[in-house]
Amino acid sequence: MSISSMQDLLADFADRRDWNRYHTPKNLAMALAGEAGELAAEFQWLEQDEAFRVMDDPEKAKAVRLEMADVLSYLLRMATVLDIDLEAALKEKVAINEDRFPPRSS
Ligand SMILES: [Mg+2]
């Protein structure tokens, strides 16, 4: 599924519930931060090896997967509301980081 298809899916979901009035940039930024916190909570207090094995437990794996979907959903909604091309933004940021963090010389 392309980024724009995911955005269309979420826009349709919001439209059919008349939720666009709630999907302001500020509300979406707060919701995104909240969901990122919920994702982080799934890893809270885990040792490093436990964190790497989190997907081995079906229940924990589902929780992580769904929190990541929540984060992605609000990021995509925010991009739609602010008319931001996420693919272009990602390329722009990677180019900036290429300059900031030169690759290790071998
Ligand atoms: Mg959540």
From TrEMBL:
InterPro entries cross-referenced by the UniProt entry: dCTP_Pyrophosphatase, DCTPP
Keyword line = Hydrolase
* Pfam families the record matches: MazG-like
The Gene Ontology terms for molecular function here are: nucleoside triphosphate diphosphatase activity
Annotated protein name in UniProt: NTP pyrophosphatase (Non-canonical NTP hydrolase)
Listed Gene3D superfamilies = MazG-like (1.10.287.1080)
Its source organism is Nocardiopsis composta
Against SUPFAM superfamilies, the record matches this protein to: all-alpha NTP pyrophosphatases (SSF101386)
Biological process terms from the Gene Ontology for this record are: nucleoside triphosphate catabolic process
Q: What is the lineage of its organism?
A: Bacteria, Bacillati, Actinomycetota, Actinomycetes, Streptosporangiales
